[in-house]
From TrEMBL:
<keyword id="KW-0328">Glycosyltransferase</keyword>
<protein>
    <submittedName>
        <fullName>Glycosyl transferase family 2</fullName>
    </submittedName>
</protein>
<keyword id="KW-0808">Transferase</keyword>
<dbReference type="GO" id="GO:0016758">
    <property type="term" value="F:hexosyltransferase activity"/>
</dbReference>
<dbReference type="Pfam" id="PF00535">
    <property type="entry name" value="Glycos_transf_2"/>
</dbReference>
<dbReference type="InterPro" id="IPR001173">
    <property type="entry name" value="Glyco_trans_2-like"/>
</dbReference>
<feature type="domain" description="Glycosyltransferase 2-like">
    <location>
        <begin position="4"/>
        <end position="112"/>
    </location>
</feature>
<dbReference type="InterPro" id="IPR029044">
    <property type="entry name" value="Nucleotide-diphossugar_trans"/>
</dbReference>
């Protein structure tokens, strides 16, 4: 098993060295691809030093050396990768020694196209911790509640399994065959500045055969600090709702072009509609909500129902 680890780098001069060195500890990792995305800090200099120090580290920038976002950076990394397997790592996170333990066994089965695991949390700054606990406040261990594979993963991520499947697993804990991405023409949605990872994971779970690996302990650690963009957004604020709408709208457009289970397609449509309604105000919001309820009363049972019934 030969793995390309793709790391988008933006404003991460304090953390990127640890991320890179955590990936280089594995003999399966043939290359670590850094995509520097016009960082405002000293990250580019650090990346150049890492590329000079380690033969396996390869540094790229976007054409024109502009800022294109994490999705575009990961897409460029996939394009530049040379190995049969792809793993992702954020520049402020790092792998633990057990990162590829499950993959070594599970990928012996050619049917399996992707393996996902659990990740843990480390607070790198007090301000980051404060923002996280205020706006995110999820579990230390980001994982799923039970082992799953195939279409059950897709259904679980949409909340359509009898038992609660759990939270999204993250890119840091995902390894996928490059051939699966190419065969299904899967790329990150570059129009999404946030949630492009969740967007790809849902699409990947539908098109590819995924299987859970280590889900009871972390294989990587996400670093929470002052500059995490996701912790700056207050849940159910207008900004939060708008970003959720863009995410669900992307999934909705994709679902219309693919053969999706009708219940899943309905769920996606309702989630998109719920966040679309959250952006309305006054009488237009009341009228739109009543019309949506008449069309499908289940909209009142969506996960984010309370984001749009307030007037």
């Amino acid at each position: 098993m030969k793995i390309s680890v793709i790391i988008p780098v933006y404003n991460a001069e304090k953390y990127v060295s640890k991320a890179v060195e955590s990936a280089l500890q594995f003999h399966e990792v043939e290359e670590v691809i850094l995509i520097e995305d016009q960082s405002p800090d000293n990250a580019l200099v650090i990346c150049r030093e890492l590329a000079l120090k380690y033969n396996k580290v390869k540094l790229f920038q976007h054409p024109g050396k502009g800022n294109h976002g994490a999705g575009a950076s990961r897409n460029l990394g996939i394009e530049k990768s040379c190995c049969d397997f792809i793993a992702f790592l954020d520049a402020d996170d790092y792998f633990l020694p057990n990162r590829f333990d499950a993959e070594r066994e599970l990928f012996k089965d050619p049917k399996i196209e992707g393996v996902f695991n659990a990740i843990g949390t480390e607070f790198l700054t007090e301000k980051g911790k404060e923002d996280f606990l205020l706006n995110i406040n999820d579990e230390y261990l980001l994982t799923v509640n039970y082992p799953a594979e195939g279409q059950e993963v897709f259904k679980g991520l949409l909340g359509q399994t009898p038992k609660k499947f759990g939270t999204f697993f993250t890119l840091d804990a995902l390894t996928v065959r490059k051939s699966a991405l190419e065969k299904n023409r899967l790329k990150f949605n570059e129009e999404l500045r946030v949630h492009q990872d969740s967007d790809l994971i849902i699409k990947l779970a539908h098109h590819c055969y995924l299987k859970s690996g280590i889900i009871d302990k972390p294989v990587a650690i996400r670093g929470i600090h002052d500059d995490n963009r996701i912790t700056k957004i207050i849940k159910y604020s207008p900004q939060y709702n708008q970003r959720q709408f863009l995410f669900w709208n992307s999934i909705y457009k994709w679902s219309r072009k693919n053969r999706i289970d009708p219940d899943a397609k309905r769920h996606i449509s309702l989630q998109k509609k719920a966040f679309e309604l959250s952006g309305k105000k006054g009488f237009s919001k009341t009228a739109a909500l009543l019309a949506a309820i008449i069309k499908d009363p289940k909209i009142l049972k969506t996960k984010y129902r309370f984001t749009y019934i307030q007037f």
